[in-house]
Write a structure and sequence with these properties.
This protein is of the alpha/beta class and 279 residues long. The chain has helices spanning 2-10, 17-37, 74-84, 87-102, 117-120, 125-136, 149-154, 156-169, 187-190, 200-203, 211-225, 237-246, and strands at residues 40-49, 54-66, 70-72, 110-114, 143-148, 172-178, 195-198, 228-231, 250-251. The structure holds ligand C2E and magnesium ion (3 copies). It comes from Mesorhizobium australicum.
Length: 279
Amino acid sequence: NARASGIGNWSVFHPDMGQIADYRQWIESELHAAFQRGDFDVYYQPQHDLATDRVIGYEALLRWRHPKRGMIPPAEFVPVAEETGMVVPIGEWVLRKACTDLKSLPQDMSIAVNISPVQMMTKDFVSRVRAVIAETGVNPSRLELEVTETAMMQDRERAAQVMRQLGDMGISVAVDDFGTGYSNLSYLIDFPFQKLKIDRSFVNRIDKDNGGAVVSTIVGLSRALGVRTIAEGVETEDQATLLRAAGCDVVQGFLYGRPGPLAAMGLDTRPVAAGATVH
Ligand code: C2E
Ligand code: MG
Ligand code: MG
Ligand code: MG
């Protein structure tokens, strides 16, 4: 459950149980005001195609800059936002911001947005996504939604239906943190998705023990399923070389660029000339 996993994360920074409860309480009490006052921002991290050696898109990553306490990592506040339900409006705000920003990216680039299981399971999720797309006018094929195994396992039938509806709209779905959540692989058969995202924990052990075998197996599995692979958390040239050798399609990590404001991505975002299609 979200509460237990949340506390698991914080205990690294706040070993005292009383402090954990206080910190969690503080986050809960601050979240709403923070959202209202505009503390939140979306950073972008490049995704690099190994075949063409080019940036093909960006992952949108939520940031909370508290006026007094500074940056608060998503690992600390997203679980609380999931418990209170705040993740639903915040998640929709991220999606809208990402779709708006997508319009200033070159037309062959896409944006990936993380979707919380809580958000994905709300009754009107698909219609809200459809509304944001209509409102911003983006081409849905340039949008990718990252969902986790946990989301898919909560209510398999509903999750499969949502993923099918997203697919019908032309949106692609990536399975984030693949291999870390749920060991029953049967969902790979039941769920429609287009990309497997190899978790950082496998990437940073790719050159150790059986790490390489696990990564190669994930790539082989993806190929057999007809989906693409993206590796996250790529930090070294050695990891990139091994991922390329394993046949991984796309890489993302500090080696290629840290998450940052869109304006820091070094893109030419001048308005497109009159007469040309804008997005
Ligand atoms: P994730 O979706 O698996 O995102 C990858 C995380 O790895 C990001 O952490 C990113 O900054 C970090 N990262 C990227 N490259 C490297 C690298 O080379 N080395 C290392 N050590 N880390 C790297 P971040 O931004 O702190 O986000 C953590 C998690 O919070 C995300 O994991 C995602 O599950 C969640 N999250 C972030 N933004 C959102 C959002 O808008 N909505 C929801 N529901 N969850 C979000
Ligand atoms: Mg992600
Ligand atoms: Mg991930
Ligand atoms: Mg991850």
